[in-house]
Amino acid sequence: MSAPPAEFLITGQAALANPSPAPLLTQADSRDKWRKKMDFLLSVIGFAVDLGNVWRFPYICYQNGGGKETGAFLIPYILMAIFGGVPLFYMELALGQFHRVGAIPIWKHICPIFKGIGFAICIIGLYVSFYYNTIIAWALYYFYSSFTHTLPWTSCDNPWNTPNCTSYFGKSNVTWTNHSKSPAEEFYVRKVLELQNSQGLSNVGGIRWQLLLCLFLIFTIVYFSLWKGVKTSGKVVWVTATLPYAVLLILLIRGATLPGAWRGIVFYLRPNWEKLTSTAVWVDAAAQIFFSLGPGFGVLLALSSYNPFHNNCYRDAIITSVVNCLTSFLSGFVIFTVLGYMAEMRDVEVEDVARDKGPSLLFITYPEAIANMVGSTFFAIIFFLMMITLGLDSTFGGLEAMITAIMDEYPHLLAKQRELFVLGLITTCFLGSVATLTSGGSYIVKLLEEFGAGCSILAVVFLESIAVSWFYGIQQFCNDVKAMLGFAPGIYWQVCWAAVSPAFLAFIIASSLLDQPPLTLFDYQYPDWSILVGYLIGASSFICIPVYMVYKLVWTPGSLKQRLAVCLRPEKRAQEQPMEPGLTPPAP
Hints:
The protein is mostly helical and 588 residues long. It contains 23 helices and 2 strands. It has helices spanning 6-17, 37-48, 51-63, 67-99, 116-145, 183-192, 209-226, 230-240, 243-256, 261-269, 279-293, 299-304, 313-346, 359-371, 376-409, 411-414, 418-433, 441-451, 455-485, 491-514, 528-542, 544-555, 560-568, and strands at 520-521, 524-525. A hairpin with a 2-residue loop joins strand 1 and strand 2. The longest helix has 34 residues, at 313-346. It is globular and about 80 Å long. The chain starts with 5 loop residues before the first helix and ends in a 20-residue tail after the last helix.
């Protein structure tokens, strides 16, 4: 008999040296695979680089005093990335690639009692889909509205404007007060959202049919990008993941040429080293790097599960996480050049320009500056097109995480029904988003953003890191990585996985729970009952973890000690799937 291929000798020896509950190392099954390596890389980058990179990172710098803290903010941001975000990012890519399943069934190969983590991830993903796609629909509404000679948020001469509307561009002796509203702000609040027709969460008003059509179009694009699997979504991301960088570069060049842009850049970069002693700066840095890279959402597990077994996921983790962080930093320059320009035009300080957190920076502040540039229509079109593509990438990843997790958990029911299953999931997400399309829908978006994927996702990934490091075992996990890559992770990665990253997550969770500022949006103070609803939303996903633990212990036969042993021990999977043709299993 001829000698087995060299590839098998390497992998077979690794399997003999370290018996593992994981699958044999090269398998041929019906699972989809990426057409090209770049399809995978662009999908991961597209998921990680989202709307938050354009608004959340600049705003965190802004809300902490801008340049008075930004230079110092970059130090905790980089440290948190090195010791927390990137290790968790690498861990999830390696787990998904090794076990080749989604977020629900993967736990039977790691630590079965923690399987509730997979269900919690899917519920969180559902909540995110209820509000995140609405933000993309807002961007699509702006994109459509930009196809005019004069942008509709340029002047105060529109039916939706109020006496407080103040336009200062191109005018002299205009006094800007705390009651003044820019045309861009009134367009967003009174035309796009129609908040004036809502009385808050107690009466959100009727559905905005224009936004309903926009959201329908968004979900239609998402469906036809995902219905056939990664082979179709991998093609789409070549456009949606690369276009934003071209637009960011154009906007950066344009912003740098605006009057007063230097004021924004100085504000962005000027350090205040005393702020390093502020706990808030470290908490913000930790939360930003975590939500930016996105471990814990099941997306990295899903996307990497379609990789070849010997793909270099270590290199992928470094490349994509560095690209993500650099994109955030670049976005800061794009935003702050415009803030400096607006401060110059208003004759105020940079810190007095923007008032509200989050999407308002994208839908009020930046459009206001664009409206008063030469070639405003062109810059508005490419800016909102960039926002749409940034959002679509992340939506692809979030929904693919749920699709992969559920289809891998119930393959006999769904293996040949992907198109119908994806249609059902997209329909559910669309119907769940309808409430966010009402006149008061932005209040619901804010509530879901704060509680749907806040502390619950932090707790999920904290338990995930504990389960992998302490129960599955660092040594076993490192052996798995060595079987894929030919080398084991170094002591730095092991210490981060076992101690530093869990501590980093515990730090964010504790700080988030201890510091709960009042929830407000556009001067609307959220009532106490809505905060309680928010906590229930957050708990509804996390509760899956203890509930499944109890279920698993109750239904496993034997004494308590025997049950714990079974529930904590990975199930073997070596014979579940056939080897690739031509490969011979190792002799006993």
